[in-house]
Design brief:
The chain is of the alpha+beta class and 344 residues long. Helices cover 33% and strands 15% of the residues. A hairpin with a 4-residue loop joins strand 9 and strand 10.
C-alpha cells in the first residue's frame, strides 16, 4: 500500500478518530493485516494501556510513526474532503493527486480526445512498420460490442464493467488482437533516466537499460470481451498470491490481458486504474494508466511497445507512473517505429 495509506492511518489514530476497513473499501482481514505490518515496521505499537479504546483502534504511534507524519506532512493538504474519494487517494502513487472526475491526473488525457479512429490508424501504421523491418505481427480489430453482449458478460462476472472499459468496448471494439516481434538485432535499447517515475514500490527492481523488440500480446490480445470470464476464473485461482492481506491486487482486480509470462493487466476495482500484476512479484502493483481508455490511448500511441514490467516503467513521466506517449522514451520508440505523427 502507498505512503498515503500509511499517512492516513497514522493521522487518524493520532487524531483519535481511527479509520476502518470500510473507509478504504477494504476487506476487514486485509485492513487488520496492514495494521499488523505497520507494527512490524515500527510505525505503530499496541495500545497496552487502553487496548480496546475506539479512539486508537488498539494502537498508538511510535516515535518512528510521529517522525513519518512530520516528514510527509505535505500530504495532509491532499486528503480528500469527500469520503468516497479516500479509497482512490490512499492507493494513488503519483506525485500530484487530483480528485477523480474534477480533473485528469498527471498524464491522463481528457476523454474527449480518445478518437478511436486514431487508435486504428496508429495500430495499422505500427503493424506495417514492423513488417517493413522484417518482423512478424498480427492485427485484428473486432466489431463494436453491443449492449446485450456487454450485459451478458457482466451477468456472468456478477458486476458491472468499469465505465471506461464499457465505452471502449461499445465505441471502438469488443476485441483487439495485436502483437509484434523483431529480431533482437533490430532492438531499440532504452536507458533509465531521471525523467522516469521514481517509485517507492518495493517490487520495482534496479536496472539501467531495457531492450525493446516486441509489443502487444499474443495470448488474449490487448483485450477481448469474450475472454473476461475465463480471466476472472483464473484470477480467483491466484488470490492466494496476496501476501497476508498487504498486497491484495489479485483480489481487487479485473483481469483483461494475459501476457503469457505469468503476468497480467488488470483494472483496480477501487481506483479504476490499470495495474500490472505479476506472479513472481516483480513490478507487481505498478500503476499503468488512469483508467482503461487512458491506458490504451497512451500504450497504443507508443505502438504497444514492451513485454516485461520494467519496459513499461520506461514510458512513465517524472510525475506519474502511468505510460505516457509523450514521455522521453515513448517519443524515441514512436520515431523508431515511424508513428511519431500519430496521437495527441
Amino acid at each position: 500500500m502507498s505512503m498515503r495509506y500509511l499517512f492516513h492511518i497514522l493521522t487518524s489514530i493520532r487524531d483519535g478518530n481511527p479509520s476502518t476497513a470500510k473507509d478504504y473499501r477494504m476487506p476487514e482481514e486485509q485492513f487488520r493485516a496492514s495494521l499488523d505490518s505497520f507494527v512490524k515496521l515500527g510505525f505503530l505499537e499496541p495500545n497496552r494501556r487502553h487496548p480496546l479504546s475506539p479512539m486508537s483502534n488498539g494502537h498508538i504511534l511510535t516515535p518512528k510513526g510521529v517522525k513519518f507524519l512530520e516528514e510527509y506532512k505535505h500530504l495532509a493538504s491532499e486528503i480528500p474532503l469527500v469520503k468516497r474519494h479516500l479509497p482512490h487517494w490512499v492507493r494513488f502513487q503519483g506525485e500530484t493527486y487530483v480528485v477523480p472526475g474534477h480533473a485528469v491526473k498527471a498524464v491522463a488525457p481528457d476523454r474527449s480526445v480518445h478518437r478511436y479512429e486514431d487508435w486504428a490508424h496508429t495500430l495499422t501504421a505500427c503493424h506495417k512498420a514492423i513488417l517493413r523491418k522484417g518482423g512478424q505481427g498480427l492485427l485484428q480489430i473486432g466489431d463494436k460490442a453491443t449492449d446485450i453482449q456487454i450485459r451478458d458478460v457482466e451477468s456472468k462476472l456478477g458486476r458491472r464493467l468499469p465505465e471506461s472499459m464499457r465505452s471502449v468496448l461499445s465505441g471502438f471494439s469488443k476485441q483487439v488482437r495485436f502483437h509484434w516481434f523483431l529480431d533482437e538485432s533490430e532492438r531499440l535499447v532504452l536507458r533509465k533516466n531521471a525523467r522516469t517515475y521514481q517509485s517507492d514500490n518495493e517490487n520495482v527492481p534496479e536496472f539501467k537499460e531495457r531492450s525493446i523488440y516486441s509489443g502487444g500480446y499474443l495470448d488474449c490480445g490487448l483485450w477481448d470481451l469474450d475472454q473476461l470470464t475465463a480471466l476472472e476464473q483464473l484470477r480467483e485461482d491466484l488470490d492466494y498470491l496476496d501476501e497476508n492481506g498487504c498486497r491484495t491486487h489479485w483480489a481487487d482486480s479485473l483481469l483483461f490481458c494475459s501476457h503469457g509470462n505469468g503476468s497480467y493487466f488488470g483494472i483496480d476495482q477501487t481506483s479504476g486504474e490499470v495495474i500490472y500484476l505479476s506472479m513472481d512479484g516483480i513490478m507487481h502493483g505498478w500503476r499503468l494508466g488512469y483508467d482503461f481508455a487512458s491506458f490504451m490511448h497512451h500504450w497504443i500511441h507508443v505502438g504497444c511497445a514492451g513485454h516485461w514490467g520494467q519496459d513499461f516503467m520506461l514510458f512513465s513521466s517524472a510525475n506519474a507512473p502511468y505510460i505516457d506517449h509523450t514521455s522521453d522514451h515513448a517519443l524515441l520508440v514512436k520515431q523508431w517505429l515511424g508513428i511519431q505523427h500519430f496521437g495527441s
